[in-house]
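Incident review: delayed structure delivery

Summary: a single-chain prediction request sat in the queue longer than the usual turnaround. Root cause was a stuck worker, restarted by the on-call engineer. No data loss occurred. The affected request and its eventual output are reproduced below so the record is complete for anyone auditing the incident later.

Affected input:
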Amino acid sequence: MKLYGRIQTEISCADFIRIANRCLRRIKKQAPEDFARLQRVVRCVSSYETTRECDLGEWVADPRPSDRPEHWDWEDGEMTGQLFIKPDLPEDQLLGVFVHELGHACTVTDDLKPLRSVISDEWSSEIMADKYASKWGFERHLQICRESREMLHHGPPPGCEWEEYGARFRLNADYSVERLTPIPELPPELRAMREECLRQNQIAGQLGDEESLRDPSA
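Output delivered after worker restart:
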């Protein structure tokens, strides 16, 4: 069975099909380029079996074929994969979960770089997924989903402030992260240790380059 466009689904629930198609039509209208990417990367939408009440959906990217050099930078671009979701959720919550997971599917590394320079990879990924969903016009549905989310995994909602690494941050309405106070400087002894580690890593990298030049098979 296919959803709107050409995304395959193993879910036969009529209500889910209707809601998913409504969502995809809006994405195509709001952001045709994102809709086209989703058609390329989402191989299938399947039912999500879980015993944890907070686990309602998941985007699972296909594993990178590490034995093929032409795919070593695959994760920098689009990643194909499979979307899992609990199809029997209330309609507004189902829409919120679905668009959040589609946001994960649509995310590429370049989207994450501005966030990863400030916060953790996990929160960067979750915030970017919500940013896509909000861009497509589903902010209200995200707010409904946040009532049952685990903040430690999904990160803060827009407008929230928090402390990390001794500094204070805020997630703005446009899903950008603002550092409100500077990260405290390391004590002199820790700063010296960090500089020494960086120096040793640089030396090791130079030695590795020289060894590669001496050994053509490296």
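Verification: The chain has two domains: 8-152, 191-218.
Action items: add queue-age alerting; document worker restart procedure.
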